[in-house]
Amino acid sequence: MDITNRQMEIVHAAIKVIARQGYEKLTTKNLAASLGVTDASLYRHFDSKKELIKMILCYFEHLSCAVIQEIKAQKLDPISCIRRFVMNRYEMFSKEPDLAMVMFSEELFKHDHSFEEYLQGIMHIHRDEVLAYIMEGQQKGMIKADLNPLHIFRIVVGSMRLLVTQWNLTKHGFDLLEEGEQLTDTIIRLIEVEK
Q1: Residue 35 lies in a domain
Q2: Which of 13, 104, 146, 190 is the most exposed place for a label (fewest CB within 10 A)?
């Protein structure tokens, strides 16, 4: 991801504004005030609000793809790959709760369908990776072969999304990492071939 330190500061500030005040409040005036700069100085780093939102999505994609590369480098078994992928999401959102609010917000994407398409592209990368882990696990006799891989993917990722949404709605009223680990353990017990 090709981004300057100043642009990254702006991205983080924009994520915070959206998460805490809503997409409509992401104006150059509000963003500049949160950073303690002038409106005009923002335009040196981003030409438009649309470009800034795309950079937020690019930032999320960068974080997401980094764990995929890490998993490939570690040469983990398929079940460990699934666990690492999901736990990375819980770790990322625990560290950046505002990012969780923004990425799971429908509001962000109803204003511009190109954002929706970009996020779907990221989701398809995730789907393809997790499906590959699942199918490899089935081929190796580690994951139940009679289960539809796409359904397993939806259970794994859908339950993660629900848990993060519940965490957001409770204003982070429980330990996301602890709950996420327990939920992941339960799902793995359900899909794993008994030894």
Answers
A1: no
A2: 146
- How many folded domains does the chain comprise? 1
How do the pLDDT tens digits run along the chain, 195 residues long? Answer: 577 888 888 889 999 988 888 888 888 888 888 888 887 787 778 888 888 888 888 888 888 888 889 998 998 999 999 999 999 999 999 999 998 888 877 666 666 677 777 777 888 888 999 999 999 999 999 999 999 999 999 999 999 999 999 999 999 999 999 999 999 999 999 999 987
CATH of the domain at 87: 1.10.357.10
pTM of this structure: 0.85
CA–CA distance, 13 with 34 (Å, rounded to integer): 7
